[in-house]
Amino acid sequence: MPDISRRAAALGTENAFVVLAEVNALARTGKDIISFCIGQPDFPAPENVQEAAIRAIRAGKHGYTPSAGIDELRAAAAKYLAQMRGGLPIRPEDVVIGAGAKPFIAYAILSTTDYGAGDEVIYPNPGFPIYESQILANGAKPVPIHLHEKRGFSLDPDELARLLNARTKLLILNYPHNPTGGCLTREELERIATVLKKHPQVWVYADEIYSRLAYVGEFFSIAQVPGMYERTIISDGASKTWAMTGWRIGFTSNPVLAPVFTRWITNTESCASQISQWAAVEAINGPQDAAARMRESFLERRDFIVDLLNQVPGVKSQVPGGAFYVWPNVTEACRLIGAADSEEFRKRLLAEAGVAVLADIHFGSRVPGEGQHVRFSYAASKQAIEAGVQRMADFIRRNTRKVA
User: Fold this and answer.
1) CATH number of the CATH domain containing 233
2) Listed residue (317, 397, 321) closest to 357, CA to CA
3) What are phi and psi of 258, to 5 degrees?
4) Are residues 295 and 274 in the same domain?
5) What is the C-alpha to C-alpha distance for residues 30 and 24, in angstroms, rounded to an integer?
6) Whole-number Å distance between alpha carbons of 209 and 38
7) pTM for the whole thing?
8) Tens digit of pLDDT for each residue in 277-323?
9) What is the per-residue pLDDT for 402?
10) Are residues 266 and 300 in the same domain?
11) How many CA atoms lie within 13 A of 212 on its CB side?
């Protein structure tokens, strides 16, 4: 039997889907599971978006589109991205449409680093696990920048300055942040931009997929800082804002790299689904009532789950600034039940209490001195949140008595 490549064998994954498979396997045996592991809205896509897709199907829009996307969506996305970011001069030709925002992570690394040349990419840790796996798969060196609880999980410009060097080619920023819900303020982004001025060879990949789910002040992009627009790759999409995860529509903008990204798409996916593209045009250009209601609901759930978690023995949770994730510290809870770490904690919580969460190690190596954390996605009903957190509290109390 032929061997697979070392690159394929070492390729990382997104552990949310691994845990989801565990959850589904348990559910098939009849076990009652409350899951907080997948980060996607629990709402349907807005009705006007669904109707736009049906119209596209009936109009015969079934074929390939240009690799960069249909003109109508590139224009709509350019206007939308610009309006969300202080009137940046984003043109339709600067925007490329992909099958979700995720492929642009790889395209950005491929377009800014050379395989095996020692080029470095700085990425947040904890962070979306695909950052590290794609850096490694594409032959660059991953350099984690640790996010600390005492800073609200925002990136420290001083630590960034220590990591930057002549080999650094790309900095990945993600805000609002997955998994912690942390945000970066305008002042912090301006400080980051000041640090980057000393390193003009560094591109910035601004993963802003949760831009419409920032709850503290108006969203601000690093691309809005003077001198940063041309070197910033702005990445956003339809998945989170309009509950269109499965429709697979992302849009990314950079005036220099747009043609390069287009060639990568031609070499890989050919184009995003035409039907989904027409639906995304309606999502952007149509009424925003449904998106606003979803955002309001997520904000209410954030406050609800944080309040409940902070009543659980051994659990402390900060209030996240955006997205739909909460990242409680469970160091003391692990001690109370005799769990070695957060991964043992989450495995026992699933097996014994029927509650599915993700452990911090699913989002990178554990940050030194930061203790133990788990991630809840609160894109779930308030009833599920209340029941799941209650099960967690009961699980800790029950097991604390056993080891007392």
Assistant:
1) 3.40.640.10
2) 317
3) -55, -45
4) no
5) 10
6) 15
7) 0.95
8) 999 999 999 999 999 999 999 999 999 999 999 999 999 999 999 99
9) 55
10) no
11) 24
